[in-house]
Write a structure and sequence with these properties.
alpha/beta, two-stranded antiparallel ribbon, single chain, globular, 14 helices, 8-stranded mixed beta sheet
Length: 326
């Protein structure tokens, strides 16, 4: 059985992996240390056309931080218009805000290119790096320019607003003010996939499962077929499901993936984490931990081992800087 991504439902375009923040929960391990590469107009058009060919006619734009390259973001919006691809929203952490005049001017430029909704990140994770007055400033600029605000999520607004909004605030400050379980309880209020950097954040807080329990069920990893929140990135990679660090060349989706070209992804899909684990142990002498959060944590541990310790080179495990920035 080989993997085939035949129909795309809902997803996004990753403009860059560089970000002003290194959030504890980031699924894509974005950070200031990631490359400043940014998607080109031509790559954006190629991505949009492929996505449309698989029956998805609208996407969101995220990063990284898309606003780190405003001219590049304009080009993406132009590419979307040229391809007749609808843009649901553009994500931002608001780090780019300087003052009212600068923010209004930039948003008007982008509005003229098709921007109509801005998803503005509001969370304690972001507030560790970005003063809340910047978030408020961008929200105000949206009102002034007629751009819809999609606050993600507004539930944290009042809590963050209790601190000095000119400063960043550590998670320690939040737990001191709101209780020792504050970080533990966040996933109950705010959707977080326990993958990427969230693994290292929550492995110390949540119960772990014995390795043998994770290996015993067997079965294939059907998560790879999920297209309800897919992403295509600036390098022309399709990220299957929520499996950050796994990659399929965007041009290869829509047909069955050849096992010779995609041995790891097809192994996971066809035989599951048990066979992937056995392959890592038998072929690369992988030494597992005794407990993991879930099978995705185990999979990430194996893949990180292959990239960081075995210098394994594969177009299936891209970009490598993802693993270097967990």
């Amino acid at each position: 059985m080989t993997l085939k991504i035949a129909n795309l439902q809902s997803g996004g375009l990753i403009t860059n992996y560089n970000c002003t923040s290194r959030c504890r929960h980031c699924l894509y391990a974005c950070s200031p240390r990631r490359s400043k590469d940014y998607i080109t107009y031509n790559q954006a058009k190629e991505n949009f056309r492929k996505i449309k060919s698989l029956n998805c006619h609208s996407v969101h734009i995220g990063g990284g931080e898309p606003f780190l390259n405003p001219a590049g973001l304009e080009k993406i919006l132009e590419a979307a218009a040229d391809c007749e691809m609808n843009i649901d929203y553009v994500e931002t952490n608001s780090s780019w805000f300087r003052d009212e005049g600068q923010s209004v001017k930039l948003l008007l430029r982008l509005k003229s290119k098709g921007l109509h909704t801005l998803l503005i990140s509001i969370s304690p994770f972001h507030n560790e790096y970005i003063p809340f007055n910047k978030v408020k400033g961008v929200m105000k600029a949206c009102v002034q320019t007629g751009i819809r605000v999609f606050p993600w999520i507004s539930d944290f607004y009042d809590e963050i607003n209790e601190f000095d909004d000119c400063l960043e605030h550590s998670m320690h400050e939040f737990t001191q003010k709101f209780g020792k379980d504050y970080l533990t309880d966040i996933p109950g209020r705010y959707w977080i996939h326990l993958g990427g950097r969230a693994v290292s954040t929550y492995r110390e807080l949540y119960p772990l499962q014995p390795l043998e329990d994770l290996l015993s069920p067997g079965g294939h990893c059907s998560e790879l077929t999920d297209t309800t929140h897919f992403h295509a990135d600036l390098y022309g990679n399709y990220i299957p499901g929520l499996c950050s660090g796994l990659s399929i060349k965007l041009g290869d989706i829509g047909a069955e993936l050849c096992k010779a070209d995609y041995p790891l992804i097809n192994l996971l899909y066809d035989e599951g984490i048990n066979s992937f684990f056995n392959h890592a142990v038998n072929s690369f002498n992988f030494k597992p931990e005794q407990e993991y959060l879930n099978k995705c944590h185990l999979c990430l541990d194996i893949r990180s081992f292959l990239i960081l310790e075995k210098n394994y080179k594969s177009h299936e495990l891209q970009p490598e800087s993802f693993y270097e920035n967990l």
